[in-house]
Write a structure and sequence with these properties.
single chain, 100 residues, alpha/beta, Transcription Regulator spoIIAA, 34% helix, globular, Anti-sigma factor antagonist, STAS_dom_sf, Anti-sigma_ant, STAS_dom
Length: 100
């Protein structure tokens, strides 16, 4: 699992590449820490190169959403493939996030 953090056009963007499974979730959570200081910035989770997400990965996304909303920030998910879209739909997460 590889993550890359960038600031782009007043957005905080985290790029995910590979499989976000239980084994990768601890390091990914550490990598996502800059996103928790999002005050005034909206967040994009770019999943274009994300192959798989486990319940541990979904938990990370949900935790970020719960932190960002009270600060007035939006969390967008960009570039999910059909398999990931089905996971988000089956878990109800498709109703929680905004998609780009």
């Amino acid at each position: 699992m590889k993550t890359t953090f960038k600031e782009e056009d007043n957005f905080f963007v985290m790029y995910f590449e590979g499989r976000l499974d239980t084994a990768a979730s601890a390091q990914t959570e550490e990598d996502m820490k800059p996103l928790y200081d999002c005050s005034g910035h909206d967040i994009i989770l770019d999943c274009t190169n994300l192959e798989y997400i486990s319940s541990s990965g979904l938990r990370l996304f949900l935790g970020l959403l719960k932190t960002a909303k009270p600060k007035g920030s939006h969390v967008y998910i960009r570039g999910i493939n059909e398999d990931l879209r089905q996971v988000f739909a089956m878990t109800g997460f498709i109703n929680l996030f905004e998609f780009k």
